[in-house]
Amino acid sequence: MTGMVTVRLVRGAPPAQAASPVRPAPHVGVRAPGLDDTQWRRLSRGQFRVDARLDLHGYIVQEAFEEFHRFMQRSRVMGWRCVEIVTGLGSGARGGSIRRELPHWLHRADIAPMVLGVVHSHQGNRGALRLLLRKKR
């Protein structure tokens, strides 16, 4: 028989290692390893030109996530370097649900490797994040 592959499972074997380590997404306002002084200073001072902006006002959380995910995939394809995500402040005591969820979305395995730095777009505005994205290779 041609094309037949035999797979043998070994109990207790370690999981296969990825070819390159997955980089965790940076936390908001915290300089990530690999981000040089000049880029960090430019990002935190708002000196990067924003290539695209996503406004999530008025969405429920699931719809907001779907829009965010499509936007991030498109930003990869388009080669955008700096994008802004607007969530708004929210009306609750702890802020809006989308605003609370966005940091979790940034740590997803398919999104985290794209993000180099995350800051609030302005110190007085906690309802928007500016993301510096990794260059496409």
UniProtKB/TrEMBL annotation:
Q: Which domain of life is it from?
A: Bacteria
Pfam family, any one: Smr
Q: Which InterPro entries does the record match to this protein?
A: Smr_dom (IPR002625), Smr_dom_sf (IPR036063)
Q: List residues of the Smr domain.
A: 54-134
Q: Which PANTHER family match?
A: DNA ENDONUCLEASE SMRA-RELATED
Tell me what this protein is called: DNA mismatch repair protein MutS
